[in-house]
Write a structure and sequence with these properties.
This protein is an alpha/beta fold. About 45% of the residues lie in helices and about 20% in strands. It has a 5-stranded parallel β-sheet with strand order 3-2-1-4-5, sandwiched between helices. The radius of gyration is 16 Å and the shape is globular. The C terminus is likely disordered.
Length: about 150
């Protein structure tokens, strides 16, 4: 029985298949659902530390926070439409910190749902999947988006 689920929300996208799938699972089981959106701290190569203006770094942080907040708003609206009990967290973290946090939070839920990125891209989603699979001790569903060419 699934009583609660956690979904790693994708920031910077118009449609989030993992969120949609998580909402459908929570609806089917009348489960509580938690949405996690990460606002990633920009990674700056040591060689650029002295030569990168602070306003560029600040702009990256602001944009990451804006995209994460938009993901939270999409999640809240979808959960409300489905009539689900839900919660959300917007977490400001480094990539490594986010991976660790997702694994720890996934341990506290019956199931976690994460979106799969395309195989030719290296994204934070891949690390979240690995963390959920190997560190949570809980079932994980990896949701894959279907491109129009595959239909």
């Amino acid at each position: 029985m699934i009583r609660d689920a956690v979904v790693g929300l994708s920031a910077g996208v118009e449609r989030d298949p993992a969120m949609d799938y998580a909402i459908s699972i929570a609806s089917a089981f009348n489960a509580h659902i938690a949405g996690l959106a990460f606002s990633y701290t920009p990674v700056i190569a040591p060689a650029l530390m002295g030569g990168l203006p602070a306003d560029i770094i600040d702009a990256q942080r602001v944009e990451a926070a804006r995209q994460a907040q938009a993901a939270i708003e999409r999640f809240e609206a979808a959960a409300k439409r489905a009539g689900l009990s839900c919660a959300h967290r917007l977490i400001d973290a480094t990539l490594g910190g986010a991976v660790d946090m997702f694994a720890r939070l996934a341990r506290r839920h019956d199931i976690s749902i994460v979106g799969q990125s395309s195989p030719d891209q290296s994204t934070p989603q891949q690390l979240l999947i690995e963390a959920a699979l190997f560190e949570s001790g809980r079932p994980v569903i990896v949701s894959r988006s279907i491109s129009p060419a595959m239909v």
